[in-house]
Amino acid sequence: MTGGASAAARATSQYATTTGNLIARMALHAYGTNPQSWFAWLGERLPLAGDVLEVGAGTGELWHRVGHRPRLTLTDFSPAMCARLREVPGARVLRCDATHLPFGAGVADAVIANSMLYHLDDPDAALRGFARVLRPGGRLTVAVNGRDHMAELNALGPVIGCSDLAVRFHDKNDVTAEATPARVAAHFDDVTVERYPDELVVPAAEPILAYVASMIGPLTAAQEAAARAAIEARIDAEGAFRVRKHTVLISATRGSR
């Protein structure tokens, strides 16, 4: 584990009062090489019958891409995110902590946790809560990233003299593609893992600079110049700035235990 702020404190600083940082990061993924976007790919794999709960739903972008509307409840800890979630037609929106869900036992047929477990100080408490609110036979879907996910962007940290850029969210709690399936299996049955095939091919520096700024705040003139030089050197050499992705979808069933 690394030092510094906890996973939850880091998430609070990033997301509590703004959706801008998340939107800037999602924008970079428009340069993915997979013709099927993450949200479209994910939507095809979600259990969408009955009562569906998404925890840490962010801006709710998934539900603007999924045509089918289940009986949907969306939660997030961030007031700014909840304001955006209220734009999702027909959704019930609650602001709450993912480790203290304000629901009774066995109220959901499906729970979705899309790229959010690594924001928690106690992800295992969240998994126990997901199992509690699911009905027997209910389905859990969790998206997490591998330890090597987008390593090329983390490598820009030393270029701009900022070690924080290289501190990925999962460094606080090891919520990764490598470690999380076993954590899920401690609470659920029938665990499967499927990787989303994609990489980013970015033809210009600006989207990458926006991503970096979303992580650490506005860049100084010197930082921007150093980052731009490194990015453009890669583009000149390879035709684009390529970023490897490593995202998996973990699916599981709530058993009778």
Q: Could you please describe the fold and organization of this structure?
A:
The structure is a single chain. The chain has helices at 7-15, 20-28, 38-45, 61-65, 79-85, 123-133, 151-154, 156-159, 180-185, 206-216, 221-238, and strands at 51-55, 71-76, 92-95, 108-114, 134-145, 189-196, 199-202, 241-244, 247-253. The protein has 257 residues and is of the alpha/beta class. It has a seven-stranded mixed beta sheet with strand order 3-2-1-4-5-9-6. α5 links the parallel β2 (71-76) and β3. α2 runs antiparallel to α10 (206-216). It starts with 6 loop residues before the first helix and ends with a strand.
Mean pLDDT: 90
Q: How far apart are the first and last residues' alpha carbons, in Å?
A: 32 Å
Count of alpha/pi helices? 11
The total beta strand count reads: 9
Envelope shape: elongated
Radius of gyration: 18 Å
Specify the helix fraction band.
25-40%
Q: Which structural class matches the secondary elements? A: alpha/beta
Order of helices and strands: HHHEHEHEEHEHHHEEHHEE
> Which strand order do you get reading across the main beta sheet?
3-2-1-4-5-9-6
Give a topology summary.
Elements: H1 7-15, H2 20-28, H3 38-45, E1 51-55, H4 61-65, E2 71-76, H5 79-85, E3 92-95, E4 108-114, H6 123-133, E5 134-145, H7 151-154, H8 156-159, H9 180-185, E6 189-196, E7 199-202, H10 206-216, H11 221-238, E8 241-244, E9 247-253
Helix pairs in contact: 2-10
In short:
With 257 residues, the chain is of the alpha/beta class. It has helices at 7-15, 20-28, 38-45, 61-65, 79-85, 123-133, 151-154, 156-159, 180-185, 206-216, 221-238; strands spanning 51-55, 71-76, 92-95, 108-114, 134-145, 189-196, 199-202, 241-244, 247-253.
